[in-house]
Amino acid sequence: MRIKVKSDDGKKINLIFPTWFVFSDLGARIAAKVISRNAEPHEFNLSGKDLSRLMVELRKIKKKYGRFELVDVQSAEGDIVKIVL
Amino acid sequence: MRTLGNRIAELRRAKNITQDEMAEKLNVTAQAVSKWENDISCPDIMLLPKIAQMLSVTVDELLSDQPKKSVELVPEEKRKSIDDLVLRIYVNSKDGDRVKVNLPMSLVKAGLEMGLKMPEVSGNEALKDIDFSQLIALADKGVIGKLVEVESADGDTVDIVVE
């Protein structure tokens, strides 16, 4: 999984996470913990079990499509954020 | 026959984008855009995905001389499984921000079953009142294409396409 950030002044950040880790049950448990600590329950209420199920779906998608662009954001100022599986 | 230049011009005008704005975003001159639209020259192949995205169409639709079908009912024998479809959400703000979210239907279904709401996914209030389970039901019955087109009073637009 890759997260690419490019600011309008040309700075680039490429974050590469190993797919096996991000979409593993361990990854889901860590994500659930981070979400429960940082998000209000009424804003984002997902259990570790729910996240595990999403991870299973994401693993299937990765297997099926390979490199799949989930999100592409381009601001008017020229900032770009992309999340690619 | 509608040419590539005709299509670029039509789609650009429909989205209220000027030739200058388009040129600036593509790092070309306004004269280059004018030449494309008058079929004097063609855009570089590397620019086609960017042009298509800016005009909220696929590269196929941009290059095809067939009029774009916004919504289509696919006959049962030609239908894809719902899990092979992709839900694409295009959000264009009046300030020029562009958000494109591509979600395989299998992921949308899983998210909805968990009670996830789309504002949590996209952060966009305009999606709050859209019933995504109905969109899935439509796609399941073979209706694909641009199923939702919302334009807010502020000038923001949200298009939801199933393909």
Low-confidence stretches of chain B: none
**Strand order in the largest sheet of chain A:** 2-1-4-3
- Tally the beta strands of chain A: 4
Main-sheet strand order of chain B equals 1-4-5-2-3
Name the average pLDDT of chain B: 84
Gap from first CA to last CA of chain A: 4 Å
Shape descriptor of chain A reads globular
Residue fraction in strands of chain A:
15-25%
Helix content of chain A: 40-55%
- What structural category characterises the helix and strand content of chain A? alpha+beta
| Count of alpha/pi helices of chain B | 8
Quaternary organization: heterodimer
Mean pLDDT of chain A: 82
Cα-based radius of gyration of chain B, to the nearest Å: 17 Å
- Characterize the largest beta sheet of chain B: strand count, sense, and whether it forms a barrel: 5 strands, antiparallel
Notes on the protein architecture:
The complex is a heterodimer of chains A (85) and B (163). Chain A has 85 residues and is an alpha+beta fold. Chain A has helices at 19-22, 25-38, 48-65; strands at 2-6, 12-16, 69-74, 80-84. Chain A is 42% helix and 25% strand. Chain A has a four-stranded antiparallel sheet, with no helix packed on it. In chain A, a hairpin with a 5-residue loop joins β3 and β4 (80-84). In chain A, α2 (25-38) crosses α3 (48-65). The termini of chain A are close together. Chain B is α+β, with helices and mostly antiparallel strands. Helices cover 38% and strands 20% of the residues of chain B. Chain B contains eight helices and five strands. Chain B has a five-stranded antiparallel sheet.
Entry keywords:
heterodimer; A: 85 residues; alpha+beta; 4-stranded antiparallel sheet; 3 helices; globular; B: 163 residues; 5-stranded antiparallel sheet; 8 helices
Write a concise synopsis of the structure shown.
The complex is a heterodimer of chains A (85) and B (163). Chain A has three helices and four strands, in the order E-E-H-H-H-E-E. With 85 residues, chain A is α+β, with helices and mostly antiparallel strands.
